[in-house]
Fold this protein.
Amino acid sequence: MIIVLKPDITRKQETAVLQEIRKLGYRPHVMRGVARTVIGAIGDERTHQSLETLTTWPQVEQVMPVQKRYKLVSREAHKATSTIAVRGNIIGGRKLQVMAGPCSVETEAQLMSVAHAVKKAGATILRGGAYKPRTSPYEFQGLGEKGLKLLAKARRETGLAVITELLSEAHTDLVAEYTDIIQIGARNAQNFQLLIAAAKTGKPILLKRGLSMRIEEWLLAGEYVLSNGNANLLFCERGIRTFETYTRNTLDLAAVPIIKAESHCPIVIDPSQGAGRADLVSSMCKGAVAMGADALLIEVHPNPTAAWSDGPQQLSLDLFARLMEELRPFIAAAGRE
Ligand code: PEP
Ligand code: MN
């Protein structure tokens, strides 16, 4: 931490600050300038108590942290990008992984037709919500355990791995029993007790970015997963809430190179929630691939106009197959498979 003292303070006031710094376990280093005295407090800020309270002291002008607040998710902690194996599919490696499937699991016929179609087109992981976080309580809330069972059936039939959302701590064991990756949705991205419970299952966790979450907060939410013994974390950018209304959310593609620079955890892009519009999904995917995303999470439905949730943003089976073809040169240009 850097502590800037106010001008014209007495030696006694300065000494009191030095004593407090030592009391909290830091080693003070005094730098006396022409106009100001600055103190460097030497010590690991993540394991020592914060010196922020010094800002309330009358002789202190400013307290500035030097270190990042996250540790285990940081690139510093682990130089190479982490790879996460899900039923033999490596996320974070050379191959761009595609997770695709309906927003919600609706019926057996719906899920099986999507599963077979996305598998044929090259996806390796099947997505589908069984517990849905809906804005209105009057909207379809998901099939619950029945939906989980259908996902398991689709996995048996196709060999695709499965990702589904864990909405409540109460369902942790149940969801973990059926899924290969646990999705933590945007609305729960800072539900720390849920993150801890999910982390403790040992399953890979896909952590969506919250609707109005800063990247630092997102990284710190991820820190909850790693600090609870689970190193298999995927960050997923799905758009943030802005003033723009042409899209449902504003997909922040800058998050890809930022997460890559800050963290060793793979980064996934969800262009479906990101744009909220099927017609934009292809462009968003191309941008995501160019930015270096490790995986895509795409909503696909056999009949989007009749979908029980998120119809406007879901791709039909044909459009998804076409998208996978269109992405080929972009994937190659990005040095991926
Ligand atoms: C979803 O994937 O269908 C979903 C609800 O995502 P998010 O949490 O990003 O809104
Ligand atoms: Mn959705």
